[in-house]
Design a protein that fits this description.
The protein has 267 residues and is mainly alpha-helical. It has one domain. The chain contains 9 helices and 7 strands, in the order βββααααααββααββα. A 3-stranded mixed beta sheet has the order 1-4-5, with no helix packed on it. A two-stranded antiparallel ribbon has the order 2-3. Strand 2 and strand 3 form a beta hairpin. The radius of gyration is 19 Å and the shape is globular.
């Protein structure tokens, strides 16, 4: 059984540090470390990669929050003081991917870095950052799934005040944060230690593979959750995952044709 010890990591006078922020920071540090390792292997300036990683991280946070706020605008329109309260949760992965990718593309263009190769690096390390960052949801007692029985082999205890309306009588829920964290960690391990050494000859494919595999996992996990943002009767994360999956498949076809015609093509 999993049970959060609470959202507060440390209180020091007027300063309060929350576990959510700690896990996001640890995810960023882990992602940056492995990004620099990949940069060295590929002969790319690691300082530029660090700068790009930091820029993409900040843009990703902004994008993740903006996406979440936009989709939850009926709530935030009457609680505008909570728009920047990211420490309470409310960061959307899909918004973060979009924001980080856009900033990364702009930076790579200006820094004259190989764009598709840097996208591959970003996809690999983002999966690690997501795996670590998901534990912030655990400490906040959020992003959990539907109720399970006490006999369920892997269950998450949710305090009464964090239970959704209609589920106040249930104590144990699917640990969907853990499911996704383990899925993201598996993606990282497979891409970093196994797949990339074969796929690095085909820049862009690794990133598209990350996007496709992550989206597939999200399509299976999201239906278990109780807090999906709905739009016209559909769960927005499901729709976003389907769009990402289609984009990744089309991208793989386009790059596959490119590398078949021009086997030595690099970008």
């Amino acid at each position: 059984m999993f049970s959060s010890p609470g959202p507060i990591f440390l209180t020091w006078g007027p300063l309060t540090i929350r576990w959510y922020g700690v896990m996001i920071a640890l995810g960023f540090l882990g992602a940056t470390y492995f990004a620099t390792r990949l940069a060295r292997q590929l002969g790319i300036d690691k300082d530029k990669i660090i700068n790009g990683t930091l820029l993409s991280f900040v843009a990703g946070i902004v994008g993740a929050r903006a996406y979440f706020v936009a989709l939850s605008w009926p709530y935030f329109s009457v609680h505008p003081d909570e728009i920047i309260a990211t420490w309470n949760g409310g960061l959307s992965i899909h918004g973060g991917i979009a924001g980080g990718l856009l900033a990364g593309l702009i930076y790579c263009r200006r820094a004259k870095l190989p764009i598709l190769t840097c996208c591959d690096i970003g996809g690999i390390v983002t999966s690690l950052g997501q795996a670590i960052g998901r534990w912030g949801n655990f400490f906040n007692s959020e992003a959990f799934g539907k109720p399970v029985s006490e006999a369920f082999p892997l269950k998450l205890y949710i305090p009464y005040e964090n239970r959704p309306i209609g589920y106040q009588g249930s104590e144990y829920f699917h640990a969907t944060f853990l499911y996704e964290s383990l899925w993201d960690l598996t993606i990282f391990v497979v891409l970093y230690f196994l797949a990339f050494k074969y796929l690095k000859r085909y820049p862009g494919i690794t990133f598209l593979l990350y996007l496709a595999v992550y989206s597939c996992g999200r399509l299976f996990i999201e239906p278990l959750r109780t807090d999906s943002i709905m739009l016209c009767g559909f769960a927005v994360p499901m729709l976003a995952s389907l769009v990402c999956l289609v984009i990744s498949l089309i991208g793989c076809i386009v790059l596959g044709v490119k590398y078949h015609i021009r086997p030595q093509a690099r970008s």
